[in-house]
Design brief:
Layout lengths: L4 E5 L3 H13 L3 E5 L2 H9 L8 E5 L1 E2 L2 E2 H10 L5 E6 L4 H9 L4 E4 L4 H18 L4 E2 L2 E5 L3 H15 L4 E4 L6 H10 L8 E5 L8 H6 E2 L11 E2 L1 H4 L4 E5 L6 H13 L1 E3 L6 E3 L3 E6 L3 H6 L5 H7 L2 E4 L10 H15 L6 E2 L1 H9 L5 H15 L4 E2 L1 H4 L7 H7 L5 H19 L4 H8 L3 H9 L4
Parallel strand pairs: 1-2, 1-3, 3-6, 6-7, 10-17, 10-18, 11-14, 14-17, 19-20
Antiparallel strand pairs: 4-5, 8-9, 12-13, 15-16
Helix pairs in contact: 2-3, 4-13, 6-7, 10-12, 13-15, 17-18, 18-19, 19-20
Length: 447
């Protein structure tokens, strides 16, 4: 097997040479570049051997490490980029990871730790094939064919002006996909405005969406623009649209059809140029059949429909997603990204992830916080060994009665969700609670 080829990009000649020499001794094929232009030219050279990994300084004399990163994510060759800098910035780190960087290292760093991280990245790349980031959506992990198929459809959706309906279980990342579509659309320079329809009190839905005039109701001391007006020119994301009551559905249908809104208490209609992206974890077709959701509104919203698969149907994405979140949260803590141990990886791969990506990110954040020695071990994850294990494991760790009850409830909810394939309405029915109560329990960070 040929050695992985690394491109080291840094304008500090001594540091660059030391890194190159050390990595070469560890078995890498190493090339060097002193700036962004030279790095991009080397990466674009189709006649030269392909680069597997790029270790790139954030600040370069003729550009930025982000320029190199953008060139990589726009290309077809799966180069894994690790950024390095002496100027720690949480915002920059998180932005770089969202744009497709695999890791973020703070100078000064230990050369052995850098070599170990690159070795791990090279091994993952060779074992699992193409890189986890889709070149069209560099911030989204898509190693599985199910996710790559979704992003191919999302690419087409981004080009259009049609209303878009995104469906999928709670926690799969529907808003993340909606933002990605907006960022790839002609409306990217205009606002992306998101609202959770399920969180809006019924009495305020019309005012929030369409605005109100001064004196329209008690407490309306000044006129207010609604979210349709705020988002005009851009995208309005209506999350959990299936939670709107019938009266709100009628008013939403009118706004979508006529592309105009009338503020509460107002007499004039206002034109709005807004693309609607709606999302729901409910079966809108079933709600239409039950006459709980308007059929005409459903067809207006679902001109283009995308279904986001749950994690259990795209198992290839689980570990890359975990590492992505691990790196993001480590960067937010100002630390190098820890690496999951083989035992932790096995536990991650075995878990059913009923809470989907939201649950996975929660566990990764915990791992980034607790892995102070640079390695995420199974005990940092607090995942069950298998069915039936959560109750004993979690309740056995506490003596306080209230804490034990909470641990039992957490474990029981996870187990019921897993039994019902992550279907929240069915799980709520089985638990004997209403759906809104289940949502509140799931929003707690420890569930």
């Amino acid at each position: 097997m040929t050695a992985a080829r690394v491109l080291v990009v840094d304008d500090e000649e001594d540091l660059r040479a030391n890194l190159a020499r050390f990595l070469a001794l560890r078995g890498f094929e190493v090339e060097q570049a002193a700036g962004a232009r030279a790095a991009i030219a080397r990466l674009a050279d189709a006649d030269a051997p392909a680069i597997d990994l790029a270790l790139v300084d954030l600040r370069l004399p003729d550009g930025s490490g982000l320029d190199v990163l953008d060139h990589v994510t726009a290309g077809a060759h799966p180069v894994q980029v690790v950024l390095m800098t002496a100027y720690a910035s949480v915002d920059t780190a998180v932005a770089a990871l969202r744009r497709g960087a695999r890791d973020y290292l703070l100078k000064p760093f230990d050369l052995a730790a850098v070599a170990a991280r690159l070795t791990a990245l090279a091994a993952v790349s060779r074992a699992e094939g193409p890189g986890p980031f889709d070149e069209r959506f560099p911030g989204l992990v898509a190693r599985s064919e199910a996710m790559r198929h979704l992003l191919r459809l999302a690419t087409e959706a981004a080009k259009s002006h049609f209303t878009l309906l995104i469906t999928g279980e709670s926690g799969v990342g529907k808003e993340v996909l909606a933002r990605a579509v907006h960022d790839r659309s002609p409306r990217v320079a205009e606002p992306f405005v998101a609202v959770n329809c399920g969180a809006l009190p019924q009495a305020l839905v019309e005012s929030e969406l369409f605005g109100h005039e001064r004196g329209a109701f008690s407490g309306a001391a000044a006129a207010k623009r609604g979210l349709f007006e705020v988002a005009s020119g851009g995208t309005l994301f209506l999350d959990e649209v299936g939670e709107l009551d019938q009266a709100a559905q009628v008013k939403l249908l009118r706004a979508v059809e006529l592309k105009e809104v009338r503020r509460v208490g107002g007499t004039e209609s206002r034109r709005v140029d807004v693309r609607i992206v709606a999302a729901t974890n409910r079966d809108l077709r079933a709600l239409v059949a039950e006459r709980r959701f308007r059929e005409d509104l459903y067809y207006r919203l679902s001109v283009f429909e995308l279904w986001v698969p749950p994690l259990r149907e795209r198992r290839e994405d689980v570990v890359p997603l975990f590492e992505h979140f691990l790196a993001r949260h480590a960067a937010a803590l100002g630390r190098p990204a820890p690496a999951p141990s083989p035992a932790a990886v096995a536990r991650i791969e075995a878990h059913a992830w009923p809470g989907n990506v939201r649950e996975l990110e929660n566990v990764a954040a915990r791992g980034a916080l607790l892995a102070t020695d640079g390695v995420v071990d199974p005990e940092h994850l607090r995942l069950p060994d298998g069915p039936g294990a959560p109750v004993a494991a979690e309740v056995g760790e506490v003596e306080d009665l209230r804490a034990a009850r909470a641990a039992f409830e957490r474990a029981h909810i996870r187990r019921v969700l897993e039994r019902h394939g992550g279907n929240k309405p069915r799980a709520a029915e089985a638990l004997g609670i209403d759906l809104s109560s289940l949502y509140r329990k799931l929003e707690r960070p420890d569930v």
